[in-house]
Design a protein that fits this description.
By secondary structure, the chain is an all-alpha fold. It is built from 23 helices and no strands. The radius of gyration is 25 Å and the shape is globular.
Length: 524
């Protein structure tokens, strides 16, 4: 019986002996870093009490990390070229682990903010550098499977973060939210030392001006988004100053990169159609994914009365569904058009968000679990093919810059999304409260029949009615946010349709061509 033709597999850019173990080390580091973007959220009240900080001050624990990471992320490509990928990865993981230990023993808010800035700087390069190495050690035909593995860390870690953080805080102490990184970081370092090869060092001149302008624009944007709600947005002078810095920094950065001889980021990588469209899609994914994660905990805890640990458990199935879908997508990515998989993922997300627009205060937790599972399953079908198509045609010399820019876009989407839904929530709560209050009039038959004491101005009745109106207006505001996220998800469909599909596979190589290819791979 004749054997079926063997599918030709090209040589990877970087040949390693223990690819599976190296991939495990990369994912350990990635999960540890990405987990810290959400694991600390549920522990903030406990931190505030322990560190003697006010509730509005303790949010700097989150803001300082986000701003530091946003500014440091674009440095990944240049630093990895100058010092080598292995050395940079080891420094980043060791630095992040040490900073985590310092966060765990911090005794004051200034100390905690300083150590979180250190975490953000070291952690900023971990995810994009892990993605670069995965792209380099896998042949182009296996990029889909590699992105599925990478996606498990990027997508599942922030979803299970609140659950793990809630359990550690309730069962032990908030400090273990950070101290748990020590054994994980130590294991990752040992595996990287053993299995990650050295890479070629390229001498690139550092573009201080370009980096300064990008850091100014991105840092000001994160500050504006994080502090906008507290400052009443554009009624405050600070917000206008920050907006001016955002426009100035990003505009000068783009002009400089287009005209400089050796710019900090080579913007020619955006000439790749799939990468440019993929970046826009990743921005939307960042908005929808992290917005939902930011909305559900306060909805479950403040309105529905669930304790911290139970609300975290209710959200956990979303991460399980994402993990399952990524396993499925990893097997389908080479056989099914990636755009079809992405459209299926968007359909799942849109359906789940439509279901969330029917939430009410009388329901139990099952609608949250069911919609969360559908949404998590859809995110896997969206994220993995998106990564695959975005990097499928990027030249190897652009990969380090491309992965850092991709991570930056995702982080900016996260910041924009959280600020957007927070602003809409606060505004619509006021609007809904006013509209509901207008219906409670002295001539209302329902008021006369069910709440006659309200007509006499009884303070207890007035307080009860106001509390009910506030509760209902908040629930309606959450539904408004879910409608907004639904519309944003549907807005991604045209971008998916504009992506270029995968090229048709080449004809199988002859035995002579395979021998030459193996010799070339060994030479590399």
């Amino acid at each position: 019986m004749a054997k079926a033709p063997v599918q030709a597999v090209s040589a990877p850019a970087l040949v390693v002996k223990h690819k599976g173990l190296l991939t495990g080390a990369l994912m350990l580091a990635t999960i540890m870093q990405v987990l810290d973007t959400t694991i600390a959220n549920v522990a903030l009240p406990h931190m505030a009490a322990s560190l003697g900080a006010a509730q509005n001050e303790i949010t700097w624990v989150l803001t300082s990390y986000i701003v530091a990471a946003a500014i440091a992320t674009p440095l990944t490509g240049w630093v990895s070229d100058r010092v080598g990928q292995k050395r940079l990865f080891l420094v980043a993981v060791i630095g992040f682990t040490v900073a985590s230990a310092l966060c765990g023993i911090a005794s004051s808010l200034p100390e905690m903010v300083l150590f979180r800035i250190m975490q953000g700087i070291f952690g900023a390069v971990i995810a994009p550098l892990a993605q670069t190495v995965l792209l380099n050690i896998n042949p182009k035909e296996r990029i889909g499977q590699a992105m599925a593995v990478y996606g498990m860390g990027i997508m599942v870690a922030p979803i299970i973060g609140p659950t793990l953080g809630g359990w550690l805080t309730e069962s032990f102490d908030w400090r273990w939210v950070f101290l748990i990184n020590l054994p994980v970081g130590g294991m990752a370092v040992a595996m990287l030392v053993a299995f990650m090869p050295e890479t070629e060092i390229r001498q690139r001149r550092f573009d201080f001006f370009g980096f300064g302008m990008l850091a100014l624009g991105v840092g000001a944007l994160q500050l504006m988004l994080d502090r906008g709600a507290d400052n009443a947005w554009f009624t405050a002078t600070e917000t206008w100053i920050e907006l001016g810095l955002v426009i100035t920094g990003l505009w000068v950065f783009v002009v400089h990169c287009l005209t400089a001889e050796n710019p900090f980021i080579d913007l020619r990588l955006f000439k790749d159609r799939n990468f440019a469209l993929g970046s826009a899609l990743m921005f939307i994914v960042g908005i929808t994914l992290f917005s939902g994660l930011a909305l559900l905990p306060p909805l479950l805890q403040s309105l529905m009365g669930y304790p911290v640990l139970l609300s975290s458990v209710i959200m956990a199935p979303r991460g399980v569904a994402t993990l399952l879908s990524m396993v499925v997508v990893g097997r389908l990515i080479g056989r099914v058009d990636a755009r079809i998989l992405m459209l299926f993922g968007i359909a799942c997300m849109a359906y789940s968000l439509y279901g969330m627009t029917s939430f009410n205060l009388q329901m139990d937790y099952w609608p949250v679990i069911i919609t969360g599972c559908i949404q998590g399953f859809g995110m896997g079908f969206l994220f993995v093919p998106l990564q695959t198509l975005a990097f499928a045609t990027i030249a190897p010399r652009f990969r380090a810059d491309a992965t850092s820019m991709f991570a930056l876009v995702r982080n900016m989407g996260q910041g924009v999304g959280i600020s957007l839904v927070t602003a809409v929530l606060a505004n619509m709560m006021q609007v809904n409260h006013a509209e509901l209050a207008e219906r409670i009039t002295a001539t209302s038959q329902n008021v006369m029949n069910q709440m006659p004491a309200l007509l006499t101005g009884n303070p207890v009745t007035v307080s009860i009615v106001n509390s009910l109106v506030t509760q209902q207006s908040a629930m309606l505001a959450y539904l408004d946010d879910f409608w907004l996220m639904l519309l944003l998800s549907l807005g991604a469909v045209p971008l998916i349709l504009l992506l270029r599909g995968p090229k048709k596979p080449d004809k199988p190589l002859t035995e002579e061509e395979k021998a030459l290819e193996r010799a070339h791979a060994m030479a590399e």
